[in-house]
Amino acid sequence: MMAALSAARKGVSVTIFERNDRIGKKILATGNGRCNFSNRDFSVAYYYGNREKLKGCFSRFSMEDTVHLFEAAGMLVKDRQGYLYPWSDQASTLLDIFRLELARHKVEICLDSKVEKIIRDKKTGKFRLEPCISIREYEAVILACGGCAAPKTGSDGSGFLLARDLGHRMVSPVPALVQLRCSDSFFKAIAGVRCEAGLTLCQESGKESMVLQEEWGELQLTDYGISGIPVFQMSRTAARALEQKKRVVVYIDFLPQMEEQDFQLYCVKKLQSFSPTLTMTIEEFLTGIGNKKLNHLFIKLANLSPGQPVFQIKKKELKRLLYSYKKLKVHVAAANSFENAQVTAGGVDLEEVDENLESVKLPGLYFAGEMLDVDGRCGGYNLQWAWTSGWIAGEEAAGKAIRSGIAAFP
């Protein structure tokens, strides 16, 4: 939609071929239906991909440009601690703005129109689409088909097949911004727990362990593994390591606000505050430290029982028990599937497009959004890439069409 709008504003004839029965279906699910469309805390460091090339792209169409465009189109913007939303808190508002703008600039939209093949005439350099959706030939084509995430909305990876058929090398797609499944047997006992936690993602080989990524935020424990924003942030790194057959673990710190030494000192002082003659169980001692489900799990992992008197426990056993609060090790078996993922990591290699997002192999072919090997963190960054890449691809494709003298492209 952004690519079409960007191009149409140049005065060229633009057609969108949409495989679904309505346009913009995927955007309705973004931001839990509220559409966090960008973020004022912006940096290319929040993206994976060729950051030098990304820096050039974002300098041409920035977060500020996005806000200006939507406001100029009539949408009020809400700033929630840097996270940007439509003032209505409805993703449908942003989609309606696009619909109005596309109609105002006379963009033709063909629904239920899946393109299965793109053919470029070697003599004229023009493009034809198959099945024979239109008898027209086009000066330029923009592939903005999405990746593999949320395939029910239409982004089922078929755009990658089109790109591959046109001679492009793909960085293999893996799910990103998704939950992680763990092989440990205790997750059903702690399912439903939400808490602040620090997470350290590691790749293990024998006795060696290499830290891949660290995050902090609200952790959600499920019956199959871990979820929540910090898990989403590291999921693409985990998925890529698993794809490479690496052994992946996550260490969870359930008390990230305290150093391990400070936590030990806290526990010593808590013990000293009670008389050794007092009959106090382990369960009672742990009250106030962590979630009750977690307390019971850690007692079990330490091979102890909740009713044991705390002053009869050996120091080694108590240390093992308390260690779980600061460094619980869980084993990652898989990332959840693309059906659950918010975005795709992988796609057309950025080395195969120029600074205008035009194919270096096939002039007149452009890429935008998740079609390219670019993905970002949670917080509106992936939508900002959609706006930026769409704007650049549309503007450049329009310029090419104008220079050719016959300004029409899909």
Quick overview:
The chain is α+β, with helices and mostly antiparallel strands and 410 residues long.
Keywords:
410 residues, alpha+beta, FAD/NAD(P)-binding domain, 2 domains, six-stranded antiparallel barrel, three-stranded parallel sheet, 12 helices, 20 strands, 32% helix
Structure overview:
This protein folds into 2 domains: 2-175 and 341-409, FAD/NAD(P)-binding domain; 179-336, no CATH class. It has a 6-stranded antiparallel beta barrel. Helix 1 packs parallel to helix 12 (381-404). The chain is an alpha+beta fold. It has helices at residues 2-8, 51-60, 63-72, 91-104, 158-165, 187-190, 229-243, 260-272, 282-286, 292-301, 315-326, 381-404; strands at 13-17, 38-39, 47-48, 77-80, 83-86, 108-110, 117-120, 127-130, 141-143, 170-176, 180-182, 194-205, 208-221, 225-227, 247-253, 328-335, 343-348, 365-367, 375-376, 408-409. It contains 12 helices and 20 strands. The chain is 32% helix and 24% strand.
What is the element layout, followed by pairings?
Elements: H1 2-8, E1 13-17, E2 38-39, E3 47-48, H2 51-60, H3 63-72, E4 77-80, E5 83-86, H4 91-104, E6 108-110, E7 117-120, E8 127-130, E9 141-143, H5 158-165, E10 170-176, E11 180-182, H6 187-190, E12 194-205, E13 208-221, E14 225-227, H7 229-243, E15 247-253, H8 260-272, H9 282-286, H10 292-301, H11 315-326, E16 328-335, E17 343-348, E18 365-367, E19 375-376, H12 381-404, E20 408-409
Parallel strand pairs: 1-6, 1-20, 9-18
Antiparallel strand pairs: 2-5, 3-19, 4-5, 7-8, 10-17, 11-14, 11-16, 12-13, 12-15, 13-14, 15-16
Helix pairs in contact: 1-12
